[in-house]
Amino acid sequence: MSIAQYFKPAFLERPSPDNTVYKHTFNFRKIWKMTVLITAAVALIPLISITAIDYNVTQKAIESEILLRVGRVASNTKRSIDFFLAKHKSVLDFLINDNTFEELKEVGRLTEILKHLKTGFGGFVDIGVINSKGIQTAYIGDYKLEGKDYSTQPWFKKAVEQGVYISDVFLGFRNQPHFVIAIKRIYSIDADRKSSMAKYSVSTPILEQKTEKDFYLLRATIDAEHFNELLSGLELSGMGDAFIINHSGIIQTPSRIHGDVLKKIDIPIPEYSDHTEVREYMDSRKNTNIVGYAYIPDTNFILMIVKNKVQLMKSWYSTRSILIIFLALSITIILGVILSMTTYLVSNLYIADKKRAMAMHRIGYDNKMATIGRLAAGVAHEINNPLAVINEKAGLIKDMFIYQHKYDKDEKLINLVESVISSVQRCGNITHRLLNFARHLEVSIKSVNIKNLIDDVLGFLGKEAEYRSIKVIVDIPDSLPDMVCDRGKMQQIFLNLINNAFAAIESDGTLKIEAHQKNSQFCIITVSDTGCGIRPADLELIFEPFYTTKASKGGTGLGLSITYGLVSEAGGYINVESEVGKGTRFIVTLPYKHHTGKKEKKIANGL
Amino acid sequence: MKILLVDDEADYVSTLAERLSFRGIEAKWASGGQDALKYLETDSYDLAVLDVKMPKIGGLELKKEIEKKYPDMKFIYLTGHGSEDDYQKGVADSVHYLIKPVNIDDLIKMMNKVMEGKD
């Protein structure tokens, strides 16, 4: 037997037709299932949907908040970078306009300019002037780059085309990341002339023939360290990382997580956009990243603000797990309450229905008994009157023999009359017993002699015992005190027990009824038979209402249950011992003074 | 000792009267309450033996009627139906009670007992 069976309420058992004649009024399994399903649905569906909606709304809100924040950081940083680059461009622009080509070519002048740039701005590493043929005509810096031909370099072409050029970051010979800004200037003859005239009284084309289309470039190398400071200064939450890549995805400034400088980035290069954009990308380590990026105009740079989504969502995840735990807990509690309440209610309904069915049966039984009683009493009364007449007439005949001495010699006639009188007496006994039995169907509490009671009950069954040659032994001491009780109910208790015993005895069996005093308050009456006995499995169920092993023979399964009810109603109790094939013994313990009143409660206990 | 027997069954009550006369007890019999009341107008009796169940006037009713006129009269009830109600009423009125069919000796014994109680 599994543990679950101990908890399984009785109404969930499918009724086995063999052992009961009790018919359910309702389908309790169905009621239970429907109630559980409907209440659970009504309670859980709104709860789950509200939680799901809240879950989504909150998650979306947090996500969009994160995107917004990343976007804002990206756009702010972009502005700083723009400003940084514009500042350096402006300086070079100023220098190229403030000085003529000739002035810039002068080593002393250029040296001074670089010195001032270094002290004023910092970050300038070298500076050079490149003529329109791509030859570096002047250079101040750590390397000997004077006279170097840049004409074939792509950056030179770009600078010539666009007027300004900002290079990618590269590692110089000192293994320091640098980048280059180059500014183009077209010769202004007037300006040059003016300035030439101011400085040199005679304008002389010295080395090169200058045309209107001629130009030159001012080129400066800037330490990328300054650039890095701009980005590393940002305080970013959620394992944030701010760095710059070029359009081919090569990392330009140090990244904490996403790769080394001048290596390829581990996330896809975001597509071009004029504005700051925010996207989600997976990196090579399968982390989802929120990427805010901005293309820096006029450069090859893309600003990247990369944050780990999982880190950012951390606060949400804890909220989410609280939400989920709360939901799971609520569901468990709701289901638990629904299950236990429904089980409680339906089992009460089941018990009530069973009680109702039993009460109906008992009412029917009582009515039947009452009808039989009335019928018997009616018959007895009707017979009594003619019987009384016969009695008197026969008595008169006898009197005539005795008092008139007319027929006193006729012994035979006297014997005949005697026999009529004694037969009338027997009839009278039967009618008296019937009347007595019927009389006690009404409730009345009075003193009852137990021996008389048992004799009365046996009086009805005596003939049956005789026919079936059942030996009936009654062992009740005369000293046993009378019992204050309802005689009718006592009759019913012992009629049921003796009837059952008769049913169990095949023939040639013995029925034994004994009584003895237990103490001053209780007496014990045992009814034992040598019948077929009761199987141990049935033994614990025999007092259950509607439990019968004789369903096919018209048993209602109520006899012993009613007996049990009557005994407990009286304040006593009933036990049973049985051995299959040997016989059964019912032990009824009854108080001398029976309980009255509180009938309903007792019946309830009796069930 | 003057005795009145009342029962709706004349056959029964007349035989009973005859049997009593064999035993030296003279009893008048009436076949019903009205008959009995008629006899009582002209005569008085010491003891009445009444059947409980009679048409028109029952034994208990008849007793009340008689008691109005002769409060000292004694009564014995006979009945074919020993119902609890009758019995209880009988006991309450402290009246004697026999169930039919009656043994004549029991009846005489009871009569003597009732009359002794009177004297």
Describe this entry's structure for a reader.
The complex is a heterodimer of chains A (607) and B (119). Chain A is an alpha+beta fold. Chain A has a domain at 442-607: Heat Shock Protein 90. Helices cover 50% and strands 18% of the residues of chain A. Chain A has 15 helices and 17 strands. In chain A, strands 1, 2, 3, 4, 5 and 6 form a six-stranded antiparallel beta sheet that branches. Chain A has a five-stranded mixed beta sheet with strand order 12-14-15-17-16, with helices on one face. In chain A, strands 7-10-9-8 form a four-stranded antiparallel beta sheet. In chain A, helix 9 (314-404) runs antiparallel to helix 10 (411-439) and helix 12 packs antiparallel against helix 14. The longest helix of chain A is centred in the middle third of the chain and has 91 residues, at 314-404. The model of chain A is unreliable at 196-210 and 597-607 (pLDDT under 50). By secondary structure, chain B is an alpha/beta fold. Chain B has a single domain, classed as 3-Layer(aba) Sandwich (Rossmann fold). A five-stranded parallel beta sheet of chain B has the order 2-1-3-4-5, sandwiched between helices. In chain B, helix 3 (59-69) links the parallel strand 3 (47-51) and strand 4. Chain B starts with a strand and ends with a helix. Classes of the chains: A alpha+beta (607), B alpha/beta (119).
